[in-house]
Amino acid sequence: MNYKQSLLAIVSSINLVACGSGSIENSSIPKFNHIVMAKPLVSDSLTVEFDTTTNEIGEVPYLINNDGAASGAKYIVWTDSDKQLLTQPSEQTKNVLNLPFTVNQRTNAELQVRLKANINEENSFHYKIDSGKWHTENVDSTADWQSITVNTFTQLSHGEHTLYIQPGNKNLQLDNVTLNITDGDIARVEVEKAPTKIKAHLGLRDTLITESPNNGDFKMFSHGQAAPLWLDDNDWEGVHLAAENLQADIKRVGEVAPEYVKNAEVKAPSKSPIIIGTIGKSKLIDTLIASGKLNVSDIKDQWENFVITTVDHPMEGVEQALVIVGSDKRGTIFGMYELSEQLGVSPWYWWADVPTKKRDNAYVVKGRYESGSPRVKYRGIFLNDEAPALTGWTNDKFGGRNSQFYTKVFELIIHREHRGATLHRENKAQYSFSVFSVFSVSSVVRSFF
């Protein structure tokens, strides 16, 4: 949180509400720790604004909307993308917000929530403290923002507690939540900020990208500067085409294009490059393997497997590198599209005009991430209703089903199809292949395959 946001938090008396008694280490409620706020003030009141949380729809399915009348001009609403809006509270639901706090003596705590419910339908949410009983609050429709006193929790014990909130329906708009205590002081329990999450993933189950880095995380771009892309001239043409797309995707997200260096002997000075290559086709990659800096024993000779990893001091003059290495051509390509999608670029950015997430900075969390080979070996799409609908559209848009058209088709296929492999792998499908049918293949895009 920057200085202005911290000042706003103080001036607006932004607090958080929470309560409870006892430990919940064995609770089945997931702890998401997505709330971000300034360093807490010790006082008899604590408030947290919901709009300071991440705006990604992941395991906590809410959206951030704008309203000049809300605190900080923003508020959150829940969606029902994963059927998580429940009339009755559930211990198993994935959309529980947990708000941890601590009190320094036994006290009573009054819970207030600032909200708006401007749809003439049921508006409700569920809440509880620690492992206590769930309560449901039904809210009357309101034209303007208002703070309501929800409940008073009595005799909270000295120590840490957690308030849980989950939605009852998607009509409710929440601004902030406040806890006022009668005795002693209350403060927010500091938790590590969760990394920004992108809902869609291709071959990895891990979230790689964060905007709040820790020591050792790799800087992809920040403050108008981006890590350069290093590739070997002798790597597959399809790998170079995908790298050009990665370069364009980074510019879409961060509005800065990384330098693209194609040279078997990289001489461009950089302390932190992104090194991309295929085992046996890239001298850059093979040199790292031979020196012991890069371990590929678990993906070598595998089908369409890749590793994304941070490597410290991989070669002279380089402090840290992000390495994307593929077991084969498509493995390397899929690794690059994994990074693109986790940055916030949808495979459907062109075909469906899906907006790209904008970021001021992006870091890759330090670590090693391996995708595994897809369970469905051959994957593709079928272009249905090719005439007159597709024929007429391609004639108008591209002048026919030509290389320009198939460049877009194959970019979508190569971007989407690794996600399909992941879905099948997680569902343990036993299919060995799926039908792939298009009507002609341009030499421009054939190198992808």
List strands and helices in order, with pairings:
Blueprint: H1 3-11, E1 45-49, E2 62-66, E3 74-78, E4 97-103, E5 107-116, E6 124-129, E7 135-138, E8 146-156, E9 159-167, E10 173-181, E11 186-188, E12 209-210, E13 218-222, E14 225-226, E15 229-231, H2 237-254, E16 260-262, E17 274-278, H3 283-290, E18 306-312, E19 320-326, H4 329-343, E20 361-364, E21 368-370, H5 386-398, H6 403-426, H7 443-446
Parallel strand pairs: 15-16, 15-17, 17-19
Antiparallel strand pairs: 1-10, 2-3, 3-10, 4-9, 4-11, 5-8, 5-10, 6-7, 6-9, 12-20, 13-14, 13-20, 18-19, 18-21
Brief digest:
The protein is of the alpha+beta class and 449 residues long.
Report on this model:
With 449 residues, the chain is an alpha+beta fold. The protein has three domains: 3-188, Galactose-binding domain-like (Jelly Rolls), CATH 2.60.120.260; 209-370, Chitobiase, domain 2 (2-Layer Sandwich); 386-446, no CATH class. The chain contains seven helices and 21 strands. The chain has helices at 3-11, 237-254, 283-290, 329-343, 386-398, 403-426, 443-446; strands spanning 45-49, 62-66, 74-78, 97-103, 107-116, 124-129, 135-138, 146-156, 159-167, 173-181, 186-188, 209-210, 218-222, 225-226, 229-231, 260-262, 274-278, 306-312, 320-326, 361-364, 368-370. Strands 1, 2, 3, 5, 8 and 10 form a six-stranded antiparallel beta sheet that branches. Strands 16-15-17-19-18-21 form a six-stranded mixed beta sheet, sandwiched between helices. Helix 2 (237-254) packs parallel to helix 4. The longest helix has 24 residues, at 403-426. It starts with a helix and ends with a helix.
